[in-house]
Amino acid sequence: MRTSTLSPPSATPASPRKNIGLLGVGIFVISESMFFLGLFLAFFYLRATARSWPPVGVHPPSILPALFNTCVVLCSMVCVWLGNRAMASGDRRGMLRGFVAASALGVVFMAVQIAEFADLALMAQGSSYGSSFTFLLLFHVLRVFVGVTLMVVVVVRGLMGQFSAQRRLMVQGTAFYWFFITSVWLVVFTVLYLVR
Length: 196
Known about the structure:
The chain is mainly α and about 200 residues long. The protein has a domain at about 65-195: Four Helix Bundle (Hemerythrin (Met), subunit A), CATH 1.20.120.80. It is built from 5 helices and no strands. Helix 3 packs antiparallel against helix 4 and helix 4 runs antiparallel to helix 5 (about 170-195). The longest helix has about 35 residues, at about 15-50. About 25% of the residues are buried.
Protein backbone atom coordinates (compact mmCIF):
# COMPACT_ATOMS: atom_id res chain seq x y z
CA MET A 1 0.00 0.00 0.00
CA ARG A 2 1.48 3.37 -1.07
CA THR A 3 1.40 6.34 1.28
CA SER A 4 1.18 9.89 0.02
CA THR A 5 4.02 12.25 0.86
CA LEU A 6 2.25 15.38 -0.31
CA SER A 7 1.92 18.30 2.12
CA PRO A 8 -1.56 19.26 3.34
CA PRO A 9 -3.48 21.48 0.91
CA SER A 10 -3.78 24.27 3.49
CA ALA A 11 0.00 24.72 3.70
CA THR A 12 0.53 25.34 -0.01
CA PRO A 13 -1.25 28.67 -0.68
CA ALA A 14 0.29 30.45 2.34
CA SER A 15 3.74 30.94 0.81
CA PRO A 16 2.69 32.74 -2.43
CA ARG A 17 0.30 34.97 -0.48
CA LYS A 18 3.04 35.84 1.99
CA ASN A 19 5.46 36.64 -0.82
CA ILE A 20 2.92 38.85 -2.61
CA GLY A 21 2.13 40.70 0.63
CA LEU A 22 5.78 41.42 1.37
CA LEU A 23 6.31 42.42 -2.26
CA GLY A 24 3.46 44.94 -1.88
CA VAL A 25 5.11 46.41 1.22
CA GLY A 26 8.40 46.58 -0.66
CA ILE A 27 6.82 48.43 -3.60
CA PHE A 28 5.17 50.88 -1.17
CA VAL A 29 8.51 51.51 0.56
CA ILE A 30 10.20 52.10 -2.82
CA SER A 31 7.54 54.66 -3.79
CA GLU A 32 7.97 56.41 -0.43
CA SER A 33 11.73 56.41 -0.98
CA MET A 34 11.28 58.12 -4.35
CA PHE A 35 9.15 60.81 -2.71
CA PHE A 36 11.76 61.41 -0.01
CA LEU A 37 14.47 61.49 -2.67
CA GLY A 38 12.54 64.28 -4.43
CA LEU A 39 12.30 66.23 -1.17
CA PHE A 40 16.02 65.86 -0.51
CA LEU A 41 16.91 66.90 -4.05
CA ALA A 42 14.74 70.01 -3.70
CA PHE A 43 16.42 70.77 -0.36
CA PHE A 44 19.91 70.41 -1.87
CA TYR A 45 18.94 72.50 -4.90
CA LEU A 46 17.74 75.34 -2.67
CA ARG A 47 20.92 75.03 -0.63
CA ALA A 48 23.16 75.12 -3.74
CA THR A 49 21.45 78.21 -5.19
CA ALA A 50 21.26 80.20 -1.94
CA ARG A 51 23.84 82.88 -1.15
CA SER A 52 24.13 81.62 2.40
CA TRP A 53 22.64 78.53 4.07
CA PRO A 54 20.96 79.09 6.42
CA PRO A 55 20.21 82.69 5.42
CA VAL A 56 21.69 85.53 7.42
CA GLY A 57 19.63 86.11 10.56
CA VAL A 58 18.11 82.61 10.57
CA HIS A 59 19.45 80.41 13.35
CA PRO A 60 19.23 76.64 12.87
CA PRO A 61 17.22 74.87 15.57
CA SER A 62 18.96 73.11 18.43
CA ILE A 63 20.24 69.63 17.70
CA LEU A 64 19.28 68.31 21.16
CA PRO A 65 15.61 67.39 20.43
CA ALA A 66 16.66 65.66 17.20
CA LEU A 67 19.46 63.82 18.99
CA PHE A 68 17.01 62.64 21.65
CA ASN A 69 14.58 61.53 18.93
CA THR A 70 17.36 59.60 17.20
CA CYS A 71 17.93 57.60 20.38
CA VAL A 72 14.16 57.07 20.72
CA VAL A 73 13.72 55.82 17.17
CA LEU A 74 16.73 53.48 17.39
CA CYS A 75 15.33 51.98 20.61
CA SER A 76 11.95 51.55 18.93
CA MET A 77 13.60 49.76 16.01
CA VAL A 78 15.19 47.28 18.42
CA CYS A 79 11.80 46.71 20.08
CA VAL A 80 10.15 46.04 16.70
CA TRP A 81 12.94 43.67 15.73
CA LEU A 82 12.56 41.75 19.00
CA GLY A 83 8.77 41.65 18.60
CA ASN A 84 8.99 40.36 15.03
CA ARG A 85 11.55 37.76 16.05
CA ALA A 86 9.37 36.65 18.97
CA MET A 87 6.38 36.17 16.68
CA ALA A 88 8.52 34.12 14.27
CA SER A 89 9.13 31.78 17.21
CA GLY A 90 5.44 31.69 18.09
CA ASP A 91 5.89 33.91 21.17
CA ARG A 92 2.79 36.12 21.00
CA ARG A 93 3.48 37.83 24.34
CA GLY A 94 7.00 38.72 23.27
CA MET A 95 5.60 40.21 20.05
CA LEU A 96 3.07 42.26 22.01
CA ARG A 97 5.72 43.55 24.40
CA GLY A 98 7.97 44.61 21.53
CA PHE A 99 5.27 46.34 19.51
CA VAL A 100 3.66 48.07 22.51
CA ALA A 101 7.07 49.46 23.55
CA ALA A 102 7.85 50.52 19.97
CA SER A 103 4.50 52.26 19.48
CA ALA A 104 4.92 54.08 22.81
CA LEU A 105 8.37 55.26 21.70
CA GLY A 106 6.83 56.37 18.40
CA VAL A 107 4.36 58.52 20.31
CA VAL A 108 7.26 60.04 22.28
CA PHE A 109 9.03 60.79 18.99
CA MET A 110 5.95 62.57 17.62
CA ALA A 111 5.44 64.54 20.84
CA VAL A 112 9.03 65.84 20.78
CA GLN A 113 8.71 66.71 17.10
CA ILE A 114 5.41 68.55 17.58
CA ALA A 115 6.98 70.57 20.41
CA GLU A 116 9.82 71.46 18.04
CA PHE A 117 7.33 72.58 15.37
CA ALA A 118 6.19 75.35 17.72
CA ASP A 119 9.71 76.79 17.52
CA LEU A 120 9.95 76.22 13.77
CA ALA A 121 6.71 78.02 12.90
CA LEU A 122 8.31 81.45 12.39
CA MET A 123 11.38 80.03 10.68
CA ALA A 124 9.18 78.14 8.18
CA GLN A 125 7.54 81.38 7.01
CA GLY A 126 10.69 83.45 6.63
CA SER A 127 12.92 81.59 4.17
CA SER A 128 13.26 78.66 1.78
CA TYR A 129 15.64 77.14 4.32
CA GLY A 130 12.99 77.25 7.03
CA SER A 131 10.14 76.02 4.84
CA SER A 132 12.10 73.10 3.34
CA PHE A 133 13.52 72.18 6.76
CA THR A 134 10.06 72.17 8.33
CA PHE A 135 8.42 70.30 5.45
CA LEU A 136 10.96 67.47 5.59
CA LEU A 137 10.34 67.07 9.32
CA LEU A 138 6.57 67.33 8.94
CA PHE A 139 6.39 64.67 6.24
CA HIS A 140 8.53 62.33 8.32
CA VAL A 141 6.27 62.80 11.35
CA LEU A 142 3.30 61.82 9.17
CA ARG A 143 5.14 58.61 8.22
CA VAL A 144 5.82 57.93 11.91
CA PHE A 145 2.10 58.40 12.61
CA VAL A 146 1.27 55.81 9.94
CA GLY A 147 3.83 53.42 11.42
CA VAL A 148 2.49 53.83 14.96
CA THR A 149 -1.06 53.27 13.69
CA LEU A 150 0.04 50.04 12.00
CA MET A 151 1.72 48.89 15.21
CA VAL A 152 -1.44 49.58 17.22
CA VAL A 153 -3.41 47.47 14.72
CA VAL A 154 -0.83 44.68 15.11
CA VAL A 155 -1.15 44.86 18.91
CA VAL A 156 -4.98 44.74 18.78
CA ARG A 157 -4.97 41.82 16.36
CA GLY A 158 -2.29 40.12 18.45
CA LEU A 159 -4.46 40.42 21.55
CA MET A 160 -7.25 38.77 19.56
CA GLY A 161 -4.92 35.86 18.78
CA GLN A 162 -4.87 36.43 15.04
CA PHE A 163 -1.12 35.87 14.57
CA SER A 164 1.06 32.80 14.82
CA ALA A 165 4.55 31.75 13.72
CA GLN A 166 3.04 30.68 10.37
CA ARG A 167 0.58 33.55 10.02
CA ARG A 168 2.35 36.85 10.70
CA LEU A 169 2.41 38.75 7.42
CA MET A 170 1.15 42.00 8.96
CA VAL A 171 3.72 41.76 11.75
CA GLN A 172 6.51 41.35 9.19
CA GLY A 173 5.18 44.12 6.93
CA THR A 174 4.83 46.56 9.83
CA ALA A 175 8.35 45.75 11.07
CA PHE A 176 9.73 46.27 7.56
CA TYR A 177 7.96 49.64 7.28
CA TRP A 178 9.26 50.74 10.69
CA PHE A 179 12.82 49.83 9.71
CA PHE A 180 12.33 52.00 6.62
CA ILE A 181 11.04 54.93 8.74
CA THR A 182 14.04 54.59 11.05
CA SER A 183 16.45 54.60 8.10
CA VAL A 184 14.80 57.70 6.63
CA TRP A 185 15.04 59.49 9.98
CA LEU A 186 18.79 58.83 10.12
CA VAL A 187 19.13 60.45 6.69
CA VAL A 188 16.87 63.38 7.69
CA PHE A 189 18.84 63.87 10.91
CA THR A 190 22.16 63.84 9.02
CA VAL A 191 21.03 66.22 6.29
CA LEU A 192 19.19 68.74 8.47
CA TYR A 193 21.25 68.75 11.66
CA LEU A 194 24.76 67.49 10.90
CA VAL A 195 25.48 68.75 7.38
CA ARG A 196 25.04 72.52 7.65
